[in-house]
């Protein structure tokens, strides 16, 4: 019932259903094409229900953030471990880009902490830097799952979980 209403409003895209020129088999193909066009048109609406990155659990009483000095030390230790690994990677490869994104992310967190930003806000502030690894053009192509993994890793590092 619903699809009949939707299909009624989907324009005839390529195939004109003239029964004199086309057989019943082509008519079925036309219906299938209209159905696929309707599904394609409805997909952006379904994307609106996709899960978005949640903000830091800053106000969650169960989360105990490290002090600013301890958090700075933890991030510096993490960077000291990651930076030598970058030299063993081949520039331009996926592992190199992933490691470079992690290093930029943690350097951004460290910069935020050194500027006096609260520990619970630093991972949120660092996400745009991690996403824009190659400039603004790359920011749109950074997968949300990659940013979610970086964010979760930083929350684990900066809390007493």
Q: In short, what is this structure?
A:
The protein is built from seven helices and no strands. The chain has 161 residues and is mainly α. The chain has two domains: 2-47, no CATH class; 68-158, no CATH class.
Topology:
Blueprint: H1 2-9, H2 24-47, H3 68-87, H4 94-114, H5 122-131, H6 136-139, H7 144-158
Helix pairs in contact: 3-4, 4-5, 5-7
Keywords:
extended; 0% strand; 161 residues; 63% helix; 7 helices; mainly alpha
Can you characterise this structure?
This protein has 161 residues and is mainly α. It has 2 domains: 46 residues, no CATH class; 91 residues, no CATH class. The protein is 63% helix and 0% strand. It is built from 7 helices and no strands. Helix 3 packs antiparallel against helix 4 and helix 5 runs antiparallel to helix 7.
């Amino acid at each position: 019932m619903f699809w009949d209403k939707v299909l009624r409003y989907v324009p005839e895209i390529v195939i004109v259903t003239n029964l004199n020129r086309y057989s019943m088999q082509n008519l079925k193909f036309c219906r299938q094409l209209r159905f696929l066009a309707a599904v394609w048109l409805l997909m952006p609406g379904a994307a609106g229900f996709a899960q978005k990155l949640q903000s830091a659990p800053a106000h969650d009483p169960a989360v105990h953030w490290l002090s600013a000095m301890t958090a700075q030390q933890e991030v510096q230790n993490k960077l000291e471990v990651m930076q030598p690994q970058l030299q063993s990677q081949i520039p331009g490869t996926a592992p190199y880009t992933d490691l470079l994104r992690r290093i930029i992310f943690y350097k951004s967190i460290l910069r935020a902490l050194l500027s006096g930003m609260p520990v619970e806000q630093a991972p949120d502030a660092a996400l745009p830097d991690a996403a824009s690894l190659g400039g603004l053009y790359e920011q749109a192509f950074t997968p949300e799952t990659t940013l979610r993994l970086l964010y979760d890793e930083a929350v684990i590092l900066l809390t007493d979980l």
